[in-house]
Specification:
Blueprint: H1 4-24, H2 29-35, H3 39-46, E1 51-52, E2 63-64, E3 69-76, H4 80-91, E4 97-104, H5 109-121, E5 128-132, H6 133-141, H7 149-154, H8 156-163, H9 169-172, E6 175-176, E7 179-180, E8 186-189, E9 191-195, H10 196-201, H11 213-223, E10 225-227, E11 230-233, H12 247-252, E12 258-262, H13 267-276, E13 290-295, H14 300-314, H15 326-334, E14 340-343, H16 346-353, E15 361-364, E16 375-383, H17 390-400, H18 403-409, E17 416-417, H19 425-429, H20 438-445, E18 450-451, H21 458-474, H22 479-497
Parallel strand pairs: 3-4, 3-5, 16-18
Antiparallel strand pairs: 1-2, 5-16, 6-7, 8-16, 8-17, 9-14, 9-15, 10-11, 12-13
Helix pairs in contact: 1-18, 4-18, 21-22
Amino acid sequence: MWSYHKKIILIFNYSLRRRKEEMKNKNHANEKQSIKLNRRTFIKSTVATGAVVSSGVLGAPYINAGAKQKLVIQTRTGRITKLEQMRNSFIQKFPDADIEFIGLAGVDHEDTISKTLAQIAAGKQIDLQRVATEGIQLYAGAGYVSPLDKWVKRDAHLLHEYFDDVAPSIPHSMLYDGSLYQISTEWNAANIFINTKLFAENDIEYPGADWTKDDFYNIAKKITKKSGSKTDVFGYGWTNRLWGSWMPWIFNNDSNLYSEAESKNSNFSDWFWKTFYKGNSSVANFKGGPKWETPQANNDRIEEALEFMRQLVVEGISPATALGDGATLTGFFTTNKMGMTPAGGFWAGGLHAQGMNPDDFDVCFFPKWKSQRHQFGAGGYLMMDSCKYKDLAWEFIKHSSSYEWQIPFMAGNISSPARRSMHNALRYSYTGPKHWNVFYETLDKFPDTGAIPAPPCSNPMTRTFTKHTGLAMSGDLTPKVALNKMQRDLERITRKYQPMYKS
């Protein structure tokens, strides 16, 4: 049997071959010429002028050389070891660069954002911050981060290769008030992960793409096993947070926690869509980026979704949200005590790390209710406005999105790569799942799939959401009363933060 490292090499070679074949059919002459540049020769010719050139698909024209330029990059604590191992791939391109990775531990995005904001307030130097969708508008609206517009325009001829490989919904979620703030490295949709052992034990077939909410309920009920009033095996489970909780049920019931609109400030974004996604019909309604303007927590469809979640708890099909966090949920799933749960591609690597084999679990689309719209979130690095070496920071952002960085970084399937071409059978043969194609097809088959609501008030919004959800699930409040209270709280905090929208 081939070793894990051999598999990674094959994945790398496969992806490069695929992109080379695609490039033959693309009319990006300038980009191809840039790729062909001999790095060493070019560096020798520019030493006298103090410029250094990087190579690679997402290479850069130059950065100023001379004294050491240090970047402090903050990310999840669990990723530090892998990032440290990959540091040299960037230093080799930019010998004058010094990179320090610092870890930040947090229970969830709300926790890490809160800690980061405290660090900023205390004057701690952070040049690049790994941030998911949930924090982009909060940081941008407060003026903590710099838009990437001028660098994207400058290096457009190099970036075609990246955006050709990325679904437009992902960069759309990174736009705020018409400016782009992130070149995403990864993303995850809220799909349904299934425990194949429990499905087999109950003679349940893999759900088709067109399965419904009623199909889901019948399957979850069939999997559920009880001893008197105690549930031994749950049909379904989730954790009380914003991402992946009961939010996907709001989406597939054709609603959202906030009303959705588009920023009218689109000077850069109009150029962006015409440059990188010309002729793509799915961007017809995309302008300056998403605006989550008006809370609507107590509308009928959201109440209907919360009532359904409460029903699952009352019937013992789903555990109460007080059960625990994501680690507890993983424990139930891996020990065959839970049949289904909402999760993204990061669960493939997580379940494998917990001892599950590729055929022990699988993934499918979220079931259809009033719609089959899915929820997703993306992530990458934001450039802090206080960064001293912004040109160098931009080079790191580009490098983090290149094959050279992405293939080893995504080894083990710790998340879903933003690049479509990196989703292939070989990549998931080591970790699973069998239907890995579901991950990216979520965006392709359901073009109305949208980013998780993340207005500038995302952090207090999340706290309000989890608070009242917990009260509804515990039975302390009815879903209707809980949502009315949630609505009042959201209206209050929204009034404070909405002025961060400029258009």
